[in-house]
Amino acid sequence: MDSSATHTPIWVDTPEALQQVCELLHDSTWLTLDTEFFRENTYYPELCLVQIANTEHIVLIDPLALPDLDALRDLLFRTDIVKILHAASQDVEIFHMLWGAIPAPLFDTQIAATLAGHGDQIGYA
C-alpha cells in the first residue's frame, strides 16, 4: 500500500451500512479500534462513536443512530482478528458494559510502550 494514499472515512449510521462495513472488515487479521463516549451526568459511559481502521478502510460508526450493534459485536469478538487499541481500559469498560465480555485478542499499545521502556504516558510533541 502506498503510504501517501488517503482514505475517505466510511460513515455508518444505518443497520445496512453497519452490516456492509463489518463484511468489508471480515477478512482483516488486525483492526485498530478506538471509542469516544460521554460520561458527564452518569456513572456509566454512553458510547458515542466507534472508530475502526485497517490498511484499506477507515470506519466511523455512530452507535447513537443504530438500534443495535450486533454486527459490530460479532466482528469484534472474532478471535482470529487482533484488535489494536491505545490505553484500552475505558474502551474495554464500554464493551463489557454493552456485551458482558471484552473482545479478544487485544493489543494495547500503551502497555507495549511501557514494557518497551517508554513509560505509560507519552506526549504528542
Give the helices and strands, then pairings:
Layout: E1 10-12, H1 15-25, E2 30-38, E3 46-53, E4 58-61, H2 70-76, E5 82-85, H3 89-99, E6 106-108, H4 109-115
Parallel strand pairs: 1-4, 2-5, 5-6
Antiparallel strand pairs: 2-3, 3-4
Kindly describe this structure.
- With 125 residues, the protein is of the alpha/beta class.
- The chain contains four helices and six strands, in the order βαβββαβαβα.
- The longest helix is centred in the first third of the chain and has 11 residues, at 15-25.
- The model has no long low-confidence stretch (mean pLDDT 89).
Q: Top keywords for this entry?
A:
125 residues; alpha/beta; Nucleotidyltransferase, domain 5; six-stranded mixed sheet; 4 helices; 6 strands; 29% helix; 25% strand; globular
